[in-house]
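Budget justification, computational time. The allocation requested in the original proposal was used primarily to generate structure tokens for proteins on the priority list. As evidence of use, we reproduce two of the resulting records. The first is shown immediately below.
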Amino acid sequence: MIPPIFLLILLLKTVNSVDFTIQEATIDEIQSAFKQNKLTSKDLVEIYIREVRKLNPIYRAVIELNPDAVRQAEKADQERKDKARKSRLTRLHGIPVLLKDNIATKDKLNTTAGSYALLKSVVPRDAGVVKKLRESGAIILGKASLSEWANYRSSNAPSGWNARAKQAVNPYVATLDPCGSSTGSAISVAANMVTVSLGTETDGSILCPSSSNSVVGIKPTLGLTSRAGVIPITPKQDTVGPMGRTVTDAVYVLDVIAGFDKYDAVATRKASKYVPKGGYLKHLNAGGLKGKRLGIMRAYPYFGFANDTEILNMFEKHFDILRHNGAILVENLEIINLNQIISSMFNGEDIAFSAEFKLALNEYLKELVASPVRSLADVIAFNKKYADLEKIEEYPQDLFLAAEKTNGIGKLEKEALLNMTKASKYGFEKLMYDNKLDALVTPYSHGSSVLAIGGYPGISVPAGYDKNGGPYGICFGGLKGAEPTLIEIAYGFEQATKFRKPPSIKNQF
């Protein structure tokens, strides 16, 4: 008979002999490997750098790697050895993060929105969310690719295209639209080139790529996360949010980046009241679906189900899962005058975007320490000159040209903004309050515009793969400040299903 002490030693040797696997590694698994001395932050960063160099020529999800990432990792390792102050050793300590290339970093990385017009520009400081990441001990691995200028340059450029990195590719099905503007942020996480990432959303650009690339994406309430240092489209809708392979990982990031920032004081002060005492982690509740009232709008094509038998059949099993785990489904919901409300939303959005984009971008460019361009007019001229000099045929900059023609917020723009506010109040908000809903459920990222225009939060969770292998998500949207409830719902669904699987590189050949 082997003495118990020798059995324990044998067990420990067996555990420590197991090599750490980066594939699908969660933040908790990585932190556990750190503690067990199976992995260092430096190891982790070097693994991801190798993965980026191997996979990025295929996926084009990363624009730049941070030349200081290894040094930052070594610092994190030393802090862990020295048992640095407790506040520094958060769950993100030593964890690599990729940032969408419209989020400013005051380091050797560029911040260009994928455009050569901003190459070598110098930002005055880290973006507010980057400052919080650095304070948590996270490592900035690099900048993720995106749809150029966050998809607000051309009305016909494909999702995921920019001048610097060219066309991003969906890692599951190469011909599938990677969707939205935070394409590189989603693809890099999906393909295990980084642990987590940050994206931005003005209208669908976190929720859509998350759905299309089988990752979890959180689009926060407007102002819950700072937009300071983010190349803007409109302050009325811009927001920054996390992407991860699990709800838990995305929530770890949200917990760090949410809160007040003096450089985005008005919006973040207003939204700070929504941050729960003690943060969001306590809402990672496996039984989070129990008792939740979830709305489904079957009758309206805009919300993704009506008259589409294939989508309905795909999601009937999801409805059963929700019911089986204690959710109360409130079906066949209606919004009075929905067509008129949607028309007001989209017409108002187009008008407001043009005027607000010009104002916001000009302000951002003027604050740069150094820049080849100082106004939207300069950017337009640069793009034309660049295309002529390089003899290339780029996508037209029609959205830029329309915005340049605007002259601030006048009567037309004020009316458009008012119509959007009314549409949110008498559409989504009324629907939620009248039916006492905790969340509205939509397939893919359908209905993301409703959340975007009203500044409401949403979470996309992997929900499966279609007959061609293409991923799709399920989206849970709620009223302002509903993140705790949405996290409970999303986590409950994820734990009940665990649909996500990594892409296979062979699918690209």
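The second record produced under the same allocation is shown here.
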Amino acid sequence: MNFYHGTDYQKIHSIKANNFYPSENPDDWLGKGVYFFTEGISCPIENAEEWAKASAYCKKTRANKYTNFVILMATIDTSKIFDTTTNDGLVVFNKLRKETYEKIMPLITRKPANVQNKILWDLMAELLESDVVIHNLYIKSIFERKNQVSSNVPNCTVACVKNVSIIKLDSIQEVRSGLVA
């Protein structure tokens, strides 16, 4: 299984030397981890490119933070994977969600939905001892961001790698690069 990550071209050397750094944003879709696009409901390379280009834009400055993007492909050990793109995976997720809500209610009460989801996904990965979580998500395209439209229908398959040590450093390679705008 191939995994694709879109980012600033300037980060390529650091990533190849030091590996990826897990995102710890409070509203990460699938919790703390390194995010990749993978095979599923759309082309992961196109998804990674769209993400890299969209991520370049800074709302505060109304300018791009970087001018060149890169799509990196990495090989990842998927022996401990939690895949909710299947019915079986969704059944497990929903069963665990019901069982764990009582335990996590103090952590999620009065928090925005995206923060609640992050906490829930991190807990699911921990309970299932999963190094990778795969899920179908809806992510706004650049067009949708600019025109303020959205949907609730998934348009890509995303993998969140919880344990960076399973990313094979020597497998990281450039697949595509180009200008952001």
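A brief technical remark on that second record: Residues 27 and 114 are 5 Å apart (CA to CA).
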